[in-house]
Structures are given as C-alpha cells and as structure tokens.
Amino acid sequence: MGFANKFDGMFSSAYIGCGKEDRAFFAHILHKLDNLQAQEILFWDDSLANIGIARQAGLQAEQYSDFVRFCERMHGYVPMAVDK
Fold first, then answer.
1. What is the pLDDT of residue 81?
2. What pLDDT is recorded for position 51?
3. Residue 58 pLDDT greater than 70, yes or no
C-alpha cells in the first residue's frame, strides 16, 4: 500500500520484542523517532486497550476498524495522505 513512503516509521511488536500493552513498546518508538515529540506521533491499532496505553505515553492514537475509515481519519491529520 506504499505506507513506508508516507510514514516516518512502522513498528511491530514482533520486531521490537515486547507487546503493545507494555510501555517499553512506546519508549522504543519514541527513541527511534527521537526527532519527534510524542504528541507528533500518530499510532493506529484495533485494540482500545493499546490505544489507551499509547495515549498515556503521549502519542495521538486512533482505532483501526477498516481501510475506508482509516483513510477518512488520516485525511483529518494529513490531507491527501492516503488514497482509497
């Protein structure tokens, strides 16, 4: 879908070595994206619990339910960010 060309990073708990329910997951992201403030980072997940933890870490977070809604929400953050 070309996401790597549109985002500063894509992070997977499998590659990081801890689950998204662990604040260390978000600490890793903040470390890797050290040129950004936590509130400048947008996190997507289908789990409301993970979204809550991301928000506690200071990130913006949205719930992923389907691609159409993802595109609609992304346009609110970055117009023309993702084409359906």
1. 55
2. 96
3. yes
Distance in angstroms (rounded) separating the CA atoms of residues 74 and 76? 5
pLDDT of residue 31: 95
**Residue 79 DSSP class:** T
3-state secondary structure (DSSP) of residue 46: coil
d(CA 23, CA 28): 9
Query: Which residues, other chains included, contact 84 with Cβ-Cβ below 8 Å and sequence gap of 6+?
Result: 67, 68, 71
- Cα–Cα distance, 37 to 19 (Å, whole number): 22
Place of tokens 């894509």: 10
CB distance 74 to 81 below 8 Å: yes
